[in-house]
From TrEMBL:
Its EC number is 2.7.13.3. Residues 25-179 form the GAF domain. It comes from Rhizobium lusitanum. It catalyses: ATP + protein L-histidine = ADP + protein N-phospho-L-histidine. This is histidine kinase. Residues 311-404 form the Histidine kinase/HSP90-like ATPase domain. The lineage of its organism: Bacteria, Pseudomonadati, Pseudomonadota, Alphaproteobacteria, Hyphomicrobiales. Pfam families: GAF, HATPase_c, HisKA_3.
Length: 412
């Protein structure tokens, strides 16, 4: 029997109170008071479990021995061996031997540390704030039959000293966590807003470019043509031969105009599908560049690439287009390879060249790369541009996460 004089117990309580001052987290509180508590309630293991604000989960902080109780958290309250106490169904738990006490061993109980650490005698009292259980104080010993109702009474006093501190720390932790969640949400929103802004700017620039092209090429051509027509009209001996260059000029302008419209709106994409549109772009751009380049295109997506929302597939196509343009314009490559791939979780487009690589780039973005990145971000795709180690050259890849298909469909 342990007999402590009431005055000495009171001294220990006072010490516990003093030690609590200035401790700002659960661990430091427990570390600092454990020795003092052991004078009143001897133990090999002490832990404090705190119910999270959602009431469903709890965390545990321990001293003495390290067990899985302290490592595997947060854990559901319903799996705790002392859940009746945490639910407020009982005022205390006291056992001479937790190994054989059935109240700790129910289906799903997280009780293996009792065996792993040879915990026999155990006592548990609730930490209460204004009558509400916010957690529990637990002491355990390797010995059997150690604790009595007197220990429970002492533990209650200690729990009452600790509870308000833990309550305050829990509230501070919660506030900190909410602040972080809120800051993250705000950062995400801001990122999206900036992305949209950049794309709007890019689209605006694109519109300006189209306007300029129309102005510089087509309008200039048409103006020239109409002047010549005027001049011709004033001449008495106009022949079909004289009109010939005019027709050619007109045809040229119409061709240019078609091309500008084509670039502004990838209609092939909608009409013939993604792979065909990429192929079309490859063929035409290489032909126009007059470079001697071979190309290949592999579509291994089994049609998945053509099941995307229009805005998503346009964004992907634009990215592919720019990657191809860069390979033709900057890489001095001898071949360009485009691969469209599909996995369970993503659709990936890769544009590879065997050219100079990015090492000699004077600047790593003239806007084109930045636009690819922005377009990818707006459709939540991952974008990368990097050197291809084995063969030299550059690899652009854009990978769009796809949700798993809902089950239960009439899949063949
Ligand atoms: N496939 C590539 N091979 C070699 N260099 C490249 C390639 N793609 C991009 N670059 C380099 O990166 C620079 C930036 O590309 P980009 O942002 O598209 O701007 P721009 O096409 O206007 O030059 C290019 O000027 C070029 O030097
Ligand atoms: Mg470019």
């Amino acid at each position: 029997m342990r007999n402590l004089a009431p005055a000495s117990v009171f001294d220990h309580y006072l010490n516990i109170s003093r030690l609590l001052a200035g401790q700002l987290d659960f661990h430091s509180v427990i570390q600092s008071v454990a020795a003092e508590i052991s004078h009143v309630i001897p133990h090999d293991h002490l832990d404090v479990c705190i119910i999270l604000v959602d009431e469903q989960f709890h965390t545990a902080y321990e001293t003495g021995l390290e067990t899985d109780w302290g490592r595997r958290f947060p854990a559901p309250v319903s799996n705790s061996p002392i859940r009746t106490l945490l639910w407020g169904e009982t005022e205390y738990l006291l056992t001479d031997d937790a190994w054989s006490d059935p109240q700790f061993h129910f289906q799903g109980a997280f009780s293996h540390p009792i065996f792993h650490q040879s915990l026999h005698s155990r006592l548990h009292v609730p930490l209460k704030v204004q009558g509400h259980v916010i957690g529990a104080l637990s002491c355990s010993s390797h010995r059997t039959g150690l604790y009595t109702m007197e220990d429970i009474e002492n533990a209650r006093v200690i729990a009452d000293l600790l509870a308000p501190h833990f309550f305050a720390i829990r509230a501070a932790d919660q506030a900190k966590r909410s602040a972080i969640v809120e800051a993250e949400a705000r950062a995400r929103e801001e990122g999206l807003r900036l992305g949209a802004l950049k794309l709007t700017e890019a689209l605006e620039a694109e519109r300006q470019r189209i306007g300029m092209d129309l102005h510089d090429q087509i309008l200039a051509d048409l103006t020239r043509l109409s002047r010549r027509l005027e001049r011709l009209a004033r001449q008495p001996d106009v022949t079909g031969e004289a009109l010939e260059p005019l027709f050619r000029g007109l045809q040229h302008s119409m061709h240019d105009l078609r091309q500008i419209i084509e670039e502004a709106k990838p209609s092939v994409l909608q009409l013939f599908g993604f792979a065909q549109a990429v192929e079309n772009h490859l063929e035409r751009s290489i032909q126009e560049s007059a470079a001697t380049l071979t190309w290949s295109l592999k579509d291994e997506t089994g049609g998945a690439i053509d099941c995307l929302e229009q805005s998503v597939s346009i964004a992907l196509f634009r990215i592919g287009q720019e990657a191809i343009n860069n390979a033709i314009r900057h890489a001095q490559a001898s071949s360009i390879e485009v691969q469209l791939k599909a996995s369970e979780s993503a659709l990936t487009i890769e544009v590879m060249d065997d050219g100079l690589g990015l090492g000699n780039a004077r600047r790593l973005s003239g806007g084109g790369i930045e636009n690819m990145r922005t377009r990818a971000r707006l459709i939540s795709a991952r974008f990368a541009i990097k050197a291809k180690a084995a063969t030299g050259g550059t690899l652009v890849s854009v990978s769009l996460p796809i949700a798993a298909k809902p089950s239960g469909g009439a899949a063949a």
